[in-house]
Amino acid sequence: MSLLGKIFSRGPKPVIAKSRYVSIEDVKATAFTKKRAGAGLSTKPETYYIVASVELGNTTTKCILTATNLETSRTYLLDKTVKMTRDIRPPKPGENVFGETVWEVELTKESVSEMVRDTILESIKRSKINIDKDLDFVVRSTGVTAGFASPKEVGDLIIALADGCLDAGIPPSKMAPAMTKESFPERLRDYTLIEKVMFDGAVVSVLPPTGKAVVANEMEGELVTAGIKVGAKWTNIDFRNPCVSMDFGTTLAGRITNGQEPYARTIGNFCGLAGAVSDAIIRGTEKVDKRGGAALDLYSRDILKKADWKAAEEYAARVHDHIDIRKVPENRDRFGTVPVDPKAAYDAGTTLIGCDVGKNGDKIPKLTDMGHEIYSDSGIHTLFATLDYVSANIVKRLADEAFEEGVVEPGSMLGVTGRAGITGRKPEFVLDYSKDKFNGTIFVSDALAMGAAVMARCMNSMGTPHIPIGGKQGGACILGQRRKLQKQKGMID
């Protein structure tokens, strides 16, 4: 680097993969012209795979419609409809409350189904797609796990999500994988490898922990890991195994994978609280709803312009006095309010690393008191700057714990997603820590929805061997290795 370059350089900038939109009209009408070696110019229609990601979270409920170009493996957004989960209607007489959000919003099968139905229908209307003709698949997921007695009970919520999809007019066939090539619409048949390889549970070449469910929001960790891999296709970062993913929704999700082929193992799982930490602090301003208020209610682009960053860093250190980050003890059945089964995890060779506020959130009121103090003494700008330091330090402490436990392989990539992990100056602070610890770092918006899109493809054997998403960094497609393994097991002929 030149002398002037050294003087003016501020170090590497965070790589942020932001969602890109496309309209259904473009999806249907687009054709591309490209030059192929030895064939001159040729024109063929682009084929898109359209997936709905239906997500019920502690803070937001979403329907995100994605369209994946099956030639380039790039995933676009058609629509993103977001509602506040706190607006789910109260239980009616005779309805059974089967759980609640981390903020104690009670849930019934009927109320969840209605919220999901309305969110889907609004998204369908906004995007102008036709459910029967345009929509290919639906993936349901939830981060609402804190109010459940065990990881097993999350299944009731998944059923409620399915009912909401059915009530919105989505046929059951669009929520289950195809069995034969003939089950696909004609436009997709050339893109499925279902006759060559079968779906065996691995999503983007990563196997889930074996045996019993080890953390209630395991599926969320699976989806965001896959989504970060897909989002990386918009950048020059090869985010493949081995890797570490962290999702900063209200609750924490994520995985640590090794570099085995053809399938990596999940050797670590993150769990506990994430965005809930910021939400607890922001409620001290008394400018948001006491029950379901969130930092995103007050966030704006210029919220950090007048911040006192030195004071914010000191406030954040005090906040972390109440934050417990460590390997989850084997005698705990919850950590950070989320149901966990550490014994099953450790028996399966998976390390659980959790983030809590006190014990199962019992110190959250102290964070709210601190939020009131910061807002009163230093204002809203410094309060949001404090949140940036708080989240960045959570990433640092989680990663440090993973390194200390020996579950991060050399050469691993780090990926961060979620509202409380990629806004403001958080990426800058995280990168300052991670640049010497990881092979690369990426920040991805809407990773869970991107993960739903790629999970739908995995379930239907719709890979892109020429642009692999699975496998190891710098490696080739693992289709051949998968076929060989499945033949050895007698799964395919």
TrEMBL record:
<protein>
    <recommendedName>
        <fullName>Methanogenesis marker 14 protein</fullName>
    </recommendedName>
</protein>
<dbReference type="InterPro" id="IPR008303">
    <property type="entry name" value="Methan_mark_14"/>
</dbReference>
<dbReference type="Pfam" id="PF09887">
    <property type="entry name" value="DUF2114"/>
</dbReference>
